[in-house]
Specification:
elongated; 10 helices; 0% strand; 268 residues; mainly alpha
C-alpha cells in the first residue's frame, strides 16, 4: 500500500494533519477554560463550529476533485491550516475574543476536513482493490497514533514553554522575593487560573502586592506560551506542505483502471 513515494507522502500528510488537529483540540480548550475562565460546557459549545466545519468540509471537498488535483488540494489545505494557526496566535488575548478565535477555528476546520478526506481517497485509489480493507486499517492506525502524538507533544510543549517563561519572569521580578518563591512549588508549574493561583498564595506569607504580581506573571506567561505554541504549530503545518507536494497530480478521469496511480503518474 505504501510502495510508492506518492503513497508514503499521503501517509505522512495524514499523520501531520491529524496530529495538528489533536494539538489544536488540546490548545484551544486550554485557552478557553484557563485563560478565559469558561466552563467545560461553554468550551464544548465554542468548539462546536470547528467540529461542524471539519464534518462539512470532509463531505463537500469531493466537489472540487474534477477541477483540482490531490496535489493542489493538499497544498491549499496545509496552507490554510498554516494561515489559521498564525491567525489564532495573533488574536488570542486575555480578554474574550470569541469571533476572531471562531474565525480561526473555522479556517483550520476547512483545511483539516478537506485533507483527511483527500488523503484517504488517495490511499484507496493508489492501492489494489483487494487491499481496500488494509487501507482502512492503515488509516485508522495512522490517525490514532497521530492523535496521541499530537496531544502529547502539545501538552509537553505548552507546559515547557510556560515553565521557562514563568521562571524567567519570576527571577526578574524584584517583588517576588526568594522567601516567597521557596514557599511555592516552582518545579511543578502548569496552567492554572488566576483564582486558583490566588488561593494557593493565600497559604503563604505573600503580601497583597506580591500576590498581584504573581497573578500578573502567570497571566502574561500563560498567554505568551499559548501564542508561541500556536506559532510552532503553524510552522509544522507549513512544513507539511512538502509531503503534500508529492501527492498524485491527477484528476478522476486520469486515474488508471488498475489503481496504480504511482506508475500511471510516472509513465505520464
Amino acid at each position: 500500500m505504501i510502495d510508492s513515494p506518492e503513497e508514503r507522502c499521503a501517509v505522512y500528510a495524514l499523520f501531520a494533519v491529524v496530529a495538528l488537529e489533536a494539538a489544536l483540540n488540546f490548545t484551544v480548550p486550554l485557552y478557553i477554560q484557563i485563560v478565559q475562565g469558561r466552563s467545560p460546557i461553554a468550551t464544548a459549545i465554542a468548539m462546536m463550529p470547528f467540529n461542524l466545519t471539519v464534518f462539512l468540509s470532509a463531505m463537500l471537498i469531493v466537489n472540487l476533485y474534477d477541477r483540482l488535483t490531490p496535489r493542489q488540494i493538499g497544498r491549499f489545505g496545509f496552507g490554510l491550516c498554516t494561515v489559521a494557526l498564525l491567525w489564532l496566535a495573533f488574536v488570542v488575548r486575555n480578554d474574550w475574543s470569541e469571533f476572531p478565535v471562531l474565525f480561526g477555528l473555522v479556517l483550520f476546520g476547512i483545511g483539516q476536513g478537506s485533507l483527511v478526506t483527500l488523503l484517504f481517497n488517495v490511499l484507496v485509489t493508489a492501492s489494489p482493490k483487494e487491499l481496500a480493507g488494509d487501507v482502512g486499517s492503515l488509516r485508522g492506525t495512522s490517525q490514532n497514533l497521530a492523535a496521541a502524538v499530537g496531544t502529547a507533544v502539545a501538552g509537553a510543549l505548552l507546559v515547557g514553554l510556560l515553565s521557562t517563561i514563568a521562571l524567567g519572569r519570576i527571577a526578574a521580578s524584584p517583588v517576588l522575593t526568594k522567601e516567597l518563591q521557596s514557599q511555592v512549588d516552582l518545579g511543578n508549574i502548569t496552567f492554572v487560573s488566576n483564582d486558583r493561583l490566588r488561593s494557593v498564595l493565600e497559604g503563604t506569607s505573600g503580601t497583597p502586592q506580591q500576590v498581584e504580581e504573581a497573578v500578573r506573571v502567570n497571566t502574561e506567561a500563560r498567554l505568551r506560551a499559548l501564542k508561541i505554541g500556536l506559532l510552532i504549530m503553524a510552522g509544522l503545518a507549513l512544513l507539511a506542505v512538502i509531503p503534500a507536494g508529492r501527492l498524485p497530480n491527477y484528476r478522476p478521469g486520469e486515474i488508471p483502471d488498475d489503481g496504480a496511480t504511482g506508475e500511471g503518474e510516472r509513465s505520464a
